[in-house]
Amino acid sequence: MRAKERALLAVERLKAVYPAISELDHKTPFQMLVATILSAQTTDRSVNAVTPVLFARYPDAAALAHADPRAVEALIKPTGFFRTKAKTIIAASAALVERFHGEVPPRMEDLVTLPGVGRKTANVVLGVAFGIPGFAVDTHVTRLTRRLGLTRSTDPVKIEAEVTKLIPPPEWTGFSLRLILHGRRVCVARAPRCPECVLNDFCPSSTVRPGRRRGPLTPTGTRVRLTHARGRAAKRSGRIRARR
């Protein structure tokens, strides 16, 4: 199976298991931007624990741009690296006010000019907050795309470029978000749970023997039906040889 075939099949399989959502709580593009910056080197749960109070006190870019750094540090301390993060979200807010009238711009070219915003954060904001196709590459996406044989690179920019060539733009955001969820719950870094994986019949890195591969259970308790593309191809080939 070629990389493109694996990518398209992975897109469809993961759709049956995960919603295309971010686990970061937010109501506006500004909140999504700040939450994504805060999520670096910590869990979404930690971010979601502090953002309600943060956004209640600083509801928009104008308010956060003029915030006392020490007050912001105290609010976001549980997320780790709180001094750097406080400085970054205040600076990003100031840039939004100065250059974009306090609004988060819906363009990659503009987003990456903001302090603390790289392509990963920009793609998350574009896809989740604006519905604009964006393929965000974090550590989970890096690990899973390599295990699936969709890329050999460890460079997020190259991974984004290579994977987005394999699937249509409308699938970019959903595929990225689902890979992240799958990487957190099943295809974990140290001990991937291959027997439970919905991709185990075609993933090149699967530890499950082909003859024993079964569809995993979804959160609703139903078993996902696996599509054995290679098996069908072999049967077709055998029928053709038999006719000859």
Give structural notes.
With 244 residues, the protein is mainly α. Helix content is 53%, strand content 0%. It is elongated. The two termini are 25 Å apart.
Please name the CATH architecture of the domain at 29-129. Answer: Orthogonal Bundle
What value does the Rg take, in angstroms? 21 Å
Fraction of residues in H or I helices: 40-55%
How many strands in all?
0
CATH class category name of the domain at 29-129: Mainly Alpha
Distance between the termini: 25 Å
CATH superfamily of the domain at 29-129: Hypothetical protein, domain 2
Number of helices: 12
Largest sheet properties? none
CATH topology of the domain at 29-129: Endonuclease III, domain 1
Unreliable sequence segments:
217-222, 227-244
The outline comes out as elongated
The SS-based structural class is: mainly alpha
Look at the structure and give the mean pLDDT.
89
Report the β-strand fraction as a percent range: under 5%
Q: Provide the succession of SSEs.
A: HHHHHHHHHHHH
List descriptors:
single chain, 244 residues, mainly alpha, Endonuclease III, domain 1, 12 helices, disordered C terminus
Describe the structure concisely.
This protein has helices at 3-15, 29-38, 44-57, 61-65, 69-76, 82-100, 108-111, 119-129, 139-147, 156-163, 172-185, 229-243. With 244 residues, it is an all-alpha fold. Helix 2 (29-38) packs antiparallel against helix 8.
Structural topology:
Blueprint: H1 3-15, H2 29-38, H3 44-57, H4 61-65, H5 69-76, H6 82-100, H7 108-111, H8 119-129, H9 139-147, H10 156-163, H11 172-185, H12 229-243
Helix pairs in contact: 1-11, 2-8, 5-6, 9-11
